[in-house]
Amino acid sequence: MDISHWVFVVSVLLLFLASGSFSIDSFHQPFPIVEPDPGHTKLRLSREGLEAISRINTPIAAVAVIGPYRSGKSFLLNQLLSLSCYEGFGVGHMRDTKTKGIWVWGTPLELNIDGVRTSVFYLDTEGFESVGKSNVYDDRIFALATVMSSVLIYNLPETVREADISRLSFAVELAEEFYGRFGQDVAFEPAKLLWLIQRDFLEGKTVKEMVDEALRHVPNTGGDKNIDQVNQIRDSLAVMGDNSTAFSLPQPHLMRTKLCDLKDDDLDPMYVKKREQLKELVASIIRPKIVQGKSLNGKEFVSFLEKILEALNKGEIPSTGSLVEVFNKGIVERCLKLYNRRMGKLRLPMPEQSLQDVHDRSREEAMKAFDKLHFGRRHAKSSFEQLDEDIKEVNKNIIMANEYHSARLCEALYTQCEDNVDQLQVLRLPSMAKFNAGFLQCNRSFEQECIGPSRANYEQRMVKMMGKSRSLFIKEYNQRLFNWLVTFSLIMVMVGRFIIKFILIEMAAWVLFIFLETYTRMFWSSESLYYNPVWHFIVSTWETIVYNPILDLDRWAIPIGCTVALWMLYWRCYGRRKHKSRWLLPMYNSHKSGSNRPRSD
What we know:
Mean pLDDT is 77; it is low at 4-22, 179-186 and 591-595. Helix content is 56%, strand content 10%. It is of the alpha/beta class. The chain crosses the membrane at residues 481-500, 507-524, 556-574.
């Protein structure tokens, strides 16, 4: 029982290892790289063909043959590769397995192109108009072959039909979008179109003249929309210019069903000659596949193919717009990073107009970079709009961040000013000059530092707060000054009488006290005093003493008061005995005898 169990485990492991290490033994055979899905509407990748391509490290070029169903595409490819039907691509009338999707010959031809060793792959495509397929599927095959290949051989039997021209609409759109862009910024060079007409007699015309005649305008007196559309394609083919050429190839033999069994000696000599010329023509016009200024190796070509297939399968109908978006996606991201980098250098908050100016310059720089780097002409509009939307979204976030930082800064400045004004309201020594100076300093600091979109709102709040605080201060100023002067006059009476015994100080204090008390009694209220010129003189003198450029008495009131008190104490105890003879002003006589004896307290 145990032995059978271990045998089973070992066999499972061997199967797992064998499947994980599967590799292709021989690449000298065709492999599918793109296959139809079960519904035969969309395409999917085949890993066998991708493995055959991924192993190539040199630049890659691809030759794809497209055309109607059973038009001899696979046989033509075998002839170009010098392969028999038995070892090359399967030929439709010979085998039951016909070409489905896109196949690649696993062994590339090695060519020296402009001094660069290039691996040239040949691609066989599923024919158009076969039974059981949708037109959308044919369009996807055509589109993918057009984008993948460096040379696109349009294999047509006998003549060029209207339907054949209509199928070129995708190639024309690609040419209109991408043709003419060179240098490092090119997305990819459109495939060179090779019209291959398989016909024995051209009735005195060259194949080029035959193609040109087929591409001439068709009269449309009835206004048929389909004819107009085909005529537009005819006009657009002129965009491709020297990117297209034509070639005629006679029939190899009258017995078409036995072509695979015939040697070159059995084939029409003219066909053999023209076939060799076709090989030389293909070799002369083929170039490595260039994507964004770089030639692709095997792995890069597979990655490129995956992007293209995803884009073509995205919509119901394949379009060049979807391909343009694939190529422009990275450029949009790059331009958006450029915009973010410019805007990221800002120090928020900042004035709205300044932010708008920086945004406009950064957006213009990003858009110029997109105009310089983007791919496509008509279909680049959606990518342009996407970039514009992304920039608007980033700018919206920056505006919100600016509003937030502006509100925080202005709120902090407003709170600081409010606290400063509250402190000015409770000055020990009321001073209009100091209040005005603090008021102006706070307002100046707010004007200089509060910036951004919140400035206007907080300016209104500042004006209201300042006006209210100023009115309250002025209302209380005269009353506080009056009370403080009355108290001051009484204190000076006591100081002049009992401490320093200086009669003039006592007299001046009494005069001030009597004036304040008598005037208010005579005129019924203290408010009437505030209009008296004497009061104005007292106020101006007070303001000059309390707050001036040299001294802020409110700040130094306590130190100065302590110093004066100590000085008075010193004078009371020691100063009069030492400096009695030096006083020129009258003082109280302290002798206990004689006629000058002071009155009893």
